[in-house]
Design brief:
alpha/beta, 3-stranded antiparallel sheet, 8-stranded parallel sheet, TIM Barrel, globular
């Protein structure tokens, strides 16, 4: 099965791995690209030297396409990063956490395919005006930085797909064939997985975090900083619950974050995680996640298609 996303990105399986600070590095991203999806290298850690060497490492780890996310708020010199991406012949970029009109025209001029991450209809309109090739539509149930007033994937994706005829990658809540088939029914052409990828064998983060996803239910997340910035959906640690209850703005230091990411201290920083953790019960290799999701999705679509055809011909 081909979709606008497999055709545009030159990949076999229309599953994109989410850009995630420190996590979306070459070990995880190359596993996704080698499995037939699209690996993405992050920039939200702000550690540009490490990111540049991770992009170089991707060239040795995979011959398949991969992309880079430009998280505008976290990059000191975003224009220079666009030049770096072009010099390294990256053909797909997602932009996020900033005004799309700032970088999209330059990225387009350089001949790179660009999608902007949008959490609202208004955000989609701005991205379309900026000239994007497609939209990465992100529902509020997903993990990570969020629009505090955002709508769920089920509302947002069909709303945007009805308005704009551009390729759409849906994000927020995708984990398996069942949810992926729903994405196509809503008008998407592919999906992005964040939380599922955190809990994969190739994800470089501490097992304590992976286990919190495996053991966490769908209600064990908190949207911290919901009345401040940046709002983030995170695993419901005591620290996250206290911050939410106090309704104070909560900052995060790099040391606190890496203490959670690599030290396994779940009360140090915030372990970003989506509600879909309630549907994740095992840590699996990326190849297995992608293959099972895609095979199951196509089987579900075939079954639904056959039922609909049978129903219409029996009338
Ligand atoms: C640990 C983590 C870090 C994230 N960091 C980023 C980021 O740097 N840039 C970005 O555009 N999205 C980021 N996100 C959001 C993801 O790109 C994705 O849209 C979201 O995880 C999808 O929802 P899901 O978690 O239900 O799969 C992050 C998500 C997680 C779980």
């Amino acid at each position: 099965m081909q979709t606008r996303i497999t055709e545009l990105l030159g990949i076999e399986i229309p599953i994109v791995q989410a850009p995630m600070g420190w996590i979306a590095r070459s070990q995880l991203a190359s596993a996704v690209s080698n499995a037939g999806g699209l690996g993405i290298i992050e920039t939200s850690s702000g550690d540009m030297e490490a990111i540049k060497s991770e992009i170089a490492a991707m060239r040795t780890l995979t011959k398949r396409p991969f992309g880079v996310n430009l998280a505008q708020m976290f990059i000191r010199d975003p224009e220079a990063m666009v030049d770096f991406v072009a010099e390294n012949e990256i053909s797909f970029v997602t932009t996020s956490a900033g005004d799309p009109s700032v970088l999209v025209p330059k990225i387009k001029e350089l001949g790179i395919t660009v999608f902007h991450v949008v959490p609202t209809m208004r955000g989609a309109a701005k991205a379309i005006d900026a000239g994007v090739d497609g939209l990465l539509v992100e529902g509020s149930e997903g993990g990570g930085f969020k629009n505090a007033d955002g709508a769920s994937t089920l509302v947002l994706v069909p709303e945007i797909a009805e308005r704009y005829d551009v390729p759409i990658i849906a994000a927020g809540g995708f984990v398996d064939g069942r949810s992926m088939a729903a994405a196509f029914a809503m008008g998407a052409d592919g999906i992005q997985m964040g939380t599922r990828m955190v809990a994969s064998v190739e994800s470089p983060i501490h097992d304590n975090w992976k286990n919190s996803i495996v053991n966490g239910t769908e209600v064990d997340t908190v949207l911290v900083n919901r009345h401040h910035r940046p709002a983030m959906r995170v695993w419901a640690s005591e620290k996250a619950k206290a911050l939410d209850a106090a309704n104070e703005p909560g900052g995060i230091s790099v040391d606190d974050m890496t203490g959670t990411y690599f030290g396994g201290d779940m009360e140090s920083g915030f372990a970003m995680s989506g509600q879909v953790q309630g549907r994740i019960t095992t840590v699996e290799p990326v190849e297995q996640i992608l293959r099972t999701t895609w095979d199951d999705c196509q089987a579900i679509l075939r079954t639904l298609g056959a039922s609909a055809t049978a129903a219409s011909t029996s009338k």
